[in-house]
């Protein structure tokens, strides 16, 4: 801003900020793109690849991450120990069970530029599986980023008033007097027919009426 | 529907009486028929709650009709399908749980079309949305009942899922659904 002193403007432009992102019920890929943009410093107009202008990013609640589709069972993370027969493949579900931070870490690692700066940028990424942050990191946080995906509300999260305010779209079949009136006439006619005619001298008309029920 | 089924039962009972007892009196027929006829003359049979009262040695089981207050009127009352009655044809999504929960049983399955009155395509669409809602974990209380005494062997990992398939025409006009707000 033009009203700042030169030193204040210098500080506002070049200081390294700390962002926090809540990964609860979010797809890890979207979280990772936001992280990689800010770790490289691409959200700043003063960006240059060599100027080391990236910021710190803290990701919390990574154990509540949500994949779309069947990726929990189908996405495979591969690695090789270097020894013969050391090729390992694990599904996303297994990897998440073993280490809840690994999915986000690998996603961000794959999205950063593949150069020597990548390791320093990964050092500036701080991932936590749940809400709890150490005091020094909590003291450094400057901005919280909005979640990329809107979380839909569960039915249990609606209040009883909201549920009652929503109108009923259909009602179960209710017998009204109109239905019973016509049914009554029909059944009375049938009963009259049955009581008047005997078993041997039944008219075919009566029989048909009777069978058509 | 229920009236017809009651009539069917009346007629089958009459058939049994006619064929079985050739010499049965008119009075016998009348005696058996009268209670059923009087049941049909009740003015409006809505949803009833069963109330049991025990006074000493006598137990009274009573069906008290519940007075359902008339809710807001649908904007298109002449249509057959409830979705068309409320003009919600292309306006709902798997996230509109308040709408979807009106068409499901307590264990999460869909109610039959003949009871809800939905047309075939809307019934299919709602079934698909209900499946998506179950997958996303938006209906946590509508789970199938496990048999009694069943203990799960291993605690299954709670994995969150996200649904991405949204109908394209909903992408433009996606907002929270409330019938009658148009």
From TrEMBL, chain A:
<protein>
    <recommendedName>
        <fullName>Large ribosomal subunit protein uL13m</fullName>
    </recommendedName>
</protein>
<dbReference type="GO" id="GO:0003735">
    <property type="term" value="F:structural constituent of ribosome"/>
</dbReference>
<dbReference type="InterPro" id="IPR036899">
    <property type="entry name" value="Ribosomal_uL13_sf"/>
</dbReference>
<keyword id="KW-0496">Mitochondrion</keyword>
<keyword id="KW-0689">Ribosomal protein</keyword>
<comment type="similarity">
    <text>Belongs to the universal ribosomal protein uL13 family.</text>
</comment>
<dbReference type="InterPro" id="IPR005822">
    <property type="entry name" value="Ribosomal_uL13"/>
</dbReference>
<dbReference type="GO" id="GO:0017148">
    <property type="term" value="P:negative regulation of translation"/>
</dbReference>
<keyword id="KW-0687">Ribonucleoprotein</keyword>
<dbReference type="GO" id="GO:0005762">
    <property type="term" value="C:mitochondrial large ribosomal subunit"/>
</dbReference>
<dbReference type="GO" id="GO:0006412">
    <property type="term" value="P:translation"/>
</dbReference>
<dbReference type="Pfam" id="PF00572">
    <property type="entry name" value="Ribosomal_L13"/>
</dbReference>
<dbReference type="InterPro" id="IPR005823">
    <property type="entry name" value="Ribosomal_uL13_bac-type"/>
</dbReference>
<dbReference type="GO" id="GO:0003729">
    <property type="term" value="F:mRNA binding"/>
</dbReference>
<dbReference type="InterPro" id="IPR023563">
    <property type="entry name" value="Ribosomal_uL13_CS"/>
</dbReference>
From TrEMBL, chain B:
<dbReference type="InterPro" id="IPR036870">
    <property type="entry name" value="Ribosomal_bS18_sf"/>
</dbReference>
<protein>
    <recommendedName>
        <fullName>Large ribosomal subunit protein mL66</fullName>
    </recommendedName>
</protein>
<dbReference type="GO" id="GO:0005743">
    <property type="term" value="C:mitochondrial inner membrane"/>
</dbReference>
<feature type="region of interest" description="Disordered">
    <location>
        <begin position="53"/>
        <end position="74"/>
    </location>
</feature>
<dbReference type="GO" id="GO:0003735">
    <property type="term" value="F:structural constituent of ribosome"/>
</dbReference>
<dbReference type="GO" id="GO:0005763">
    <property type="term" value="C:mitochondrial small ribosomal subunit"/>
</dbReference>
<keyword id="KW-0687">Ribonucleoprotein</keyword>
<dbReference type="InterPro" id="IPR001648">
    <property type="entry name" value="Ribosomal_bS18"/>
</dbReference>
<keyword id="KW-0809">Transit peptide</keyword>
<keyword id="KW-0689">Ribosomal protein</keyword>
<keyword id="KW-0496">Mitochondrion</keyword>
<dbReference type="Pfam" id="PF01084">
    <property type="entry name" value="Ribosomal_S18"/>
</dbReference>
<dbReference type="GO" id="GO:0032543">
    <property type="term" value="P:mitochondrial translation"/>
</dbReference>
<dbReference type="GO" id="GO:0070181">
    <property type="term" value="F:small ribosomal subunit rRNA binding"/>
</dbReference>
<comment type="similarity">
    <text>Belongs to the bacterial ribosomal protein bS18 family. Mitochondrion-specific ribosomal protein mL66 subfamily.</text>
</comment>
């Amino acid at each position: 801003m033009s009203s700042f002193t030169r030193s204040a403007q210098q500080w506002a432009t070049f200081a390294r900020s700390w962002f926090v992102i809540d990964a609860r019920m979010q797809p890890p890929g979207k979280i990772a793109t936001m992280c990689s943009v800010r770790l490289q410093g691409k959200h700043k107009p003063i960006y240059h690849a060599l100027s080391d202008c990236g910021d710190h990013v803290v990701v919390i609640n990574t154990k509540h991450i949500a994949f779309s589709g069947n990726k929990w069972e189908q996405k495979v993370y591969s690695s090789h120990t270097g020894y013969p027969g050391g090729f390992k493949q694990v599904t996303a579900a297994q990897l998440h069970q073993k280490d809840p931070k690994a999915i986000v870490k690998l996603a961000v690692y794959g999205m950063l530029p593949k150069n020597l700066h990548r390791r320093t940028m990964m050092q500036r990424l701080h991932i936590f599986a749940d809400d709890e942050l150490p005091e020094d990191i909590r003291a450094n946080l400057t901005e919280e980023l909005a979640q990329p995906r809107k979380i839909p509300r569960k039915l249990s999260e609606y209040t009883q008033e909201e549920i009652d305010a929503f109108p009923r779209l259909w009602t179960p079949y209710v017998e009204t007097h109109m239905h019973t009136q016509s049914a009554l006439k029909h059944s009375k006619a049938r009963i009259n027919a049955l009581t008047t005619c005997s078993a041997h001298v039944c008219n075919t008309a009566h029989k048909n009426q009777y069978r058509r029920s | 529907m229920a009236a017809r089924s009651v009539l069917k039962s009346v007629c089958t009972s009459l058939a049994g009486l006619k064929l079985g007892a050739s010499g049965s009196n008119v009075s016998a027929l009348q005696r058996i028929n009268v209670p059923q006829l009087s049941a049909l003359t009740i003015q409006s049979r809505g949803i009833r709650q069963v109330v049991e009262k025990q006074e000493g040695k006598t137990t009274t089981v009573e069906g008290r009709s519940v007075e359902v207050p008339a809710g807001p009127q649908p904007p298109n009352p002449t249509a057959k399908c409830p979705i068309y009655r409320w003009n919600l044809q292309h306006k709902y999504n798997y996230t509109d749980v308040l709408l979807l929960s009106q068409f499901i049983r307590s264990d999460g399955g869909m109610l039959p079309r003949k009871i809800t009155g939905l047309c075939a395509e809307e019934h299919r669409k709602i079934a698909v949305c209900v499946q998506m809602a179950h997958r996303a974990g938006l209906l946590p209380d509508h789970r199938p009942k496990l048999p009694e005494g069943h203990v799960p062997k291993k605690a299954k990992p709670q994995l969150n899922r996200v649904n991405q398939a949204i109908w394209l025409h909903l992408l433009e006009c996606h907002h929270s659904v409330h019938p009658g707000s148009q």
